[in-house]
Amino acid sequence: MTELNNERERAAQISNYRQETSRNIESLLHSGAPLEQVAAILGAEKFLQHEAAGRRGPVLHFDVGGYMNEQIEHGTFLRMPDSFIEMDSVILPPDERGSLVKGSEVGMRETSPVPRSRYLVEALSEQGLHYNMASGTPSQESMRKSDYLMFYLPDAKKLILVNDEASQATFVVHDIESKMEDWQKVYSLTKSQLKDSQEYRIDTVMYLGDPDKWKQKITELILNVEQPEKKYSEYEKAPEDWKTNRALVDELGRSFEKVKNLAEPFRIEHPDWFKIYLNKIGQPNEHYSPEFVEAIRESSKKITHPPEREGWQVISSIAQELSVPEKKVWHKRVQRIAQKFRSTHPEWFRIFLDKAEKPMEHYRRELVEKIKEELDRGEKT
Question: How high is the pLDDT of residue 161?
Fold first, then answer.
């Protein structure tokens, strides 16, 4: 019986992993995230394919199936980021003295890059933690050869700043909310300012040549292993059938904001459906009752796939049809064109399930034709 249960758990793990990875890849494509950079961090460059697309140049594709099969075969199950933001700001701008300041791993003999960002993804995946990523704009004044990446862990409320250059330290900033303005206060500091800050609780992690020990230290900081005094004793552990916003996002394939918006009408009439409990890593988070979860599930069942005969499409399928690389700029141009018709033809806009079973806005055939016409007149360039 134990062996049978293990097989079932393994099958469920694989199924959940395939669904989540497909959903995250779809989301990254829609947002115009830099797939080449994400693939490099995950060690998945071989699954990127450049296909010829005539006069518009090559189109980048990611072999999702091949990537998932390799992860399942190796048993690694590396998670994709929930989102990836390319910012116009420098993450940890240089001090006046450049990058060789307090907090750097100065004195190390190693000069080749250390794939800390990949080690971090491995550590997060092993703990089953979701994460969002952001990259910044390189600083021309910095002595650093590579740039910092920012990882935000919504369940742990931590911001991790990591750099793959050998001489750079990793910073774990605790108790950070999910608002971008809160992140900005952190990443706009220099490393000296960050390390000397009295506003944040910060840990600096040095890489001393052993990937496993580095990952262990990072994991301990994420799980608060070394801060036993911060136990939030006033909160209870969540009942098994109560869910966080993140859990509903995973189950329904909706955004954080969408789930929060769905919750608002119930707060006045059913305040007992919303309580603060400790989440799986010991952090206090709002949880939703089984009654609310069931109400949201029923609401989600009303969303269906689009009728084929009406020619509904999402932005990514329009890009694929036109063999245009779906980058942020192109994505925004399509949205700008579509917005012109929203007030006069609201029937051309509907929320349907996409191929990844995720609710997404679709454009009707008539609107797609209007978009193509305007792009042909010069919007694509």
Answer: 96
* Token output for 275: 């309580």
Helix axes 2-31, 64-74, angle to 10 degrees: 150
Alpha carbon of 256 to those of 29, 82, 215: distances in Å?
18, 11, 28
Question: What residue type is 133 in one-letter code?
Answer: M
| Structure token pair of residue 319 | 């890009």
d(CA 170, CA 160): 7
Helix, strand or coil, per DSSP, at residue 7: helix
Rg for the chain, CA atoms, rounded: 23
Beta bridge partner(s), residue 149: 135, 162
274-333 confidence digits (pLDDT tens): 888 887 767 777 889 998 888 877 766 666 778 877 788 887 777 777 766 555 556 777
The C-alpha atoms of residue 181 and residue 174 are separated, in whole angstroms, by 15
Specify burial of residue 172 (Cβ count, 10 A radius: 0-12, 13-18, 19+).
buried
Centroid of chain to Cα 299: 25
H/E stretch holding 61 reads strand 59-62
Q: Tokens 């911060």 label which residue?
A: 230
pTM of the model: 0.59
Main-chain dihedrals φ then ψ at residue 275, nearest 5 degrees: -140, 155
Helix ranges restricted to H, 173-230: 180-187, 191-196, 211-222
CA proximity to 91, closest of 186, 164, 167: 186
Q: Do 314 and 362 meet the contact criterion of CB atoms below 8 Å apart?
A: yes
Dihedrals φ, ψ of 369, to 5°?
-65, -40
Share of the chain above pLDDT 70, in %: 79
Contact indicator for 170, 204 with CB cutoff of 8 Å:
yes
145 to each of 94, 111, 168, how far by Cα in Å? 12, 11, 10
131 and 78 Cβ atoms separated by less than 8 Å: no
What DSSP designation does 305 have?
A: P
